[in-house]
Specification:
This protein has 331 residues and is mainly α. It has 14 helices and 2 strands; from the N terminus they run H-H-H-H-H-H-H-H-H-E-E-H-H-H-H-H.
Length: 331
Amino acid sequence: MRQLCAVGLVFAGCCSNVIFLELLVRKHPGCGNIVTFAQFLFIAAEGFLFEAHLGTKRPAIPIRYYATMVTMFFTVSVVNNYALNLNIAMPLHMIFRSGSLIANMILGIIILKKRYSMFKYMSIALVSVGIFICTSMSAKQVTSQSSLSESDGFQAFAWWLLGIGALTFALLMSARMGIFQETLYKQFGKHSKEALFYNHALPLPGFIFLASDIYNHAVLFNKSESYQVPVVGVTVPVMWFYLLMNVATQYVCIRGVFILTTECASLTVTLVVTLRKFVSLIVSILYFQNPFTLWHWLGTVCVFVGTLMYTEVWNSLGTAKSPPGKEGKKN
């Protein structure tokens, strides 16, 4: 029952979070900083109450280690959200971020000196092909949509290239953070809830440097049309409602994933998260009528099939279904 609840939280929270984020960035593409700040502030406040016990509980992992991890996490979060202001469509944003396996493998080889099987290299190649197809098709759409003049088309394409660069940087930084987090957990044990709190609480002073941008978007949010919240009946500016729902669904999504990792096997977590990403992509395409060609679908299938190949889902499922003692008879 708890597992089903976790799966429901993941799908309901993460998929609806994508909808509210896209509603925000469609109206104000540069609102990434205020969205990131609101998410960090809410999760930090919740963690301060229930994880840090109002600051009376000492962290299991020394703060100096969190400082390094927090710097990377803050950078990744800000860059990922800001990329939406650089002509990056939401479907491409989701597909590109699904390529984290590529970054993990590259940095795993360079930093941890890992070696992988040929099957895993093939799966990563498939993911890379999928991302390349989607990216190149999106590049054509950017240039074709900016057909007012040659200079406008070049400018739009240049901003799009900068957005791709930002997503690539965030992808590599996120993989590096994952490796650093893995080494910390090996040394001090796994403390996921504690890490979640400090990753969101410690970066809050960094938003001072983004204060003017956050303030400007808060003013824009105040000027948005009024919206009467169902059931409650309170009238608020619609952009603040979208932001509130984005923060709430983000929290539901994170809690769902956390429960899933504690209650289910890693195979189940991988399947649920991968399927959730695919459903989020479908929702974004259908609900917002985002342009998505046959080539985009081909690239998407390559990315998700490659991801499942990398995690060796079919081998794991086959092992789970085989009768006990069958493998022993073969030996």
